[in-house]
Structures are given as C-alpha cells and as structure tokens.
Amino acid sequence: MNQEQPSEFRYFVSYSGIKLPLKLVNEITEDSLNNRNTYYRSQFDDQGRMILCQKVVYGEVESEHQYRYDDDGVLKYAQITEDDEVRELHF
After folding, report:
1. pTM (whole model) above 0.85
2. Residue 7, exposed/middle/buried by CB under 10 A (0-12, 13-18, 19+)?
3. pLDDT category, 7, cuts 50, 70, 90?
4. Is the dihedral angle over the CA atoms 24, 30, 36, 38 positive or is it negative?
5. pLDDT at site 89
6. How far apart are CA 10 and CA 1, in angstroms?
7. Which of 7, 34, 37, 88 has most Cβ atoms within 10 angstroms of its Cβ?
C-alpha cells in the first residue's frame, strides 16, 4: 500500500455522503476556526487523497479516520477511532 507524505492541515465545515473516505465540504481557513465549535481538519497526500480526517469539537479530537490506498489510488484500509474504540476496515 502506497503512503505518501501528508500535506499541512486543511479545514472543513462538514462532510457529505456515507461512503469512505469521507467527502469533506465547505473548506474554511485556519483563521476562521476561532468562530467555530466544531470542524474537520484533514491531511492529504501528494496526489490529493485524504489520509487523515479528524472531527474537532471544542478543541478536542472527537473522532479520527486514517486512510491508506493501493498504488492505483483505490481505498484499501481505514482505521476509525471514535469514543476510544478503534475499528479497522480492509477493502
């Protein structure tokens, strides 16, 4: 499985859909985070694929998704952490 180096964090208001990886929507700037209680921060690899997504609520990470892709860019693995429970999904 190919794992590229992550980019800097990008920030989003929400996500859409139910399939993995999540589809983040309404990108916001880091400067606008002071006005938000909840947001998503994510990192993408050099090919624009999301490799990390964290839901941040009142400054604390509430949930986290880590993704890995095969050499063709197809999602092969997801690790989802919510409420101290870790689930691993293999595709």
Report:
1. yes
2. middle
3. low
4. positive
5. 97
6. 24
7. 7
